[in-house]
Amino acid sequence: MLFFAVTDIVKQSKLDAMYHEYSVVMYTVAYDVLGDKQYAEDAVHESFLRIIDFLDRIPEDRDLRRNFFVTVSKHTAINIYNKRKKYNEYKYSADITEDDPGNNNPADIYIGRESVQHIKGIIFKLDDIYKDVLYLNIVYGLKYEEIARILDIKVDTVRKRANRAKKMVANQLRKEQEDEKRK
């Protein structure tokens, strides 16, 4: 098969099984981004090459695993698209000064008040560039360096996006709390 980089037979069989289970949905996501069959196939292949390092950390839960594969595939396709078009749609026009990231952790601010499901709901309303970084960090427990490798972006970019996402979630929670007080 295409996974000659995996020498461990157990890992290779696990990767083969995951390839057969998720390659179609990954291809669909990549094709939606790229609009080209060949590039979509390349995105799926490149995604699996990135996933090899994280085989032991992929969750057993089918939904979480599917989301992981879709996220990696989507970002790989976006990276291919950006390289093809020599355009990076995630440039920031202004560099926002960040407060201490520890002060913006929504879990630290509202633990006990807000349910985990409610916070997840707020996270899923964020733009993809923020949601994906926060999701990979919180749900999968990946470090910023690992997320940067998977999404093929700089570690500093991952840190900034995670910090901004945490700020957005904290601001939304504060807003909801103020709205509750007014009632």
* Ends distance: 61 Å
User: How does the helix and strand content classify structurally?
Assistant: mainly alpha
Number of domains: 2
Assign an overall shape: globular
Which residues form runs of ≥5 with pLDDT under 50?
A: 87-103, 106-114
Largest sheet: none
Describe the structure.
With 183 residues, this protein is mainly alpha-helical. It folds into two domains: 1-89, Rna Polymerase Sigma Factor, Chain: A, CATH 1.10.1740; 96-183, Arc Repressor Mutant, subunit A, CATH 1.10.10. Helix content is 69%, strand content 0%. It is built from eight helices and no strands. The protein has helices spanning 9-34, 37-51, 62-85, 106-110, 116-124, 128-138, 144-151, 155-182. The longest helix is centred in the C-terminal third of the chain and has 28 residues, at 155-182. It is globular, with a radius of gyration of 18 Å. The chain starts with 8 loop residues before the first helix and ends with a helix.
Entry summary:
This protein has 183 residues and is mostly helical.
Provide the fold topology.
Elements lengths: L8 H26 L2 H15 L10 H24 L20 H5 L5 H9 L3 H11 L5 H8 L3 H28 L1
Helix pairs in contact: 1-2, 1-3, 2-3, 6-8, 7-8
Structural descriptors:
183 residues; mainly alpha; 8 helices; Arc Repressor Mutant, subunit A; Rna Polymerase Sigma Factor, Chain: A
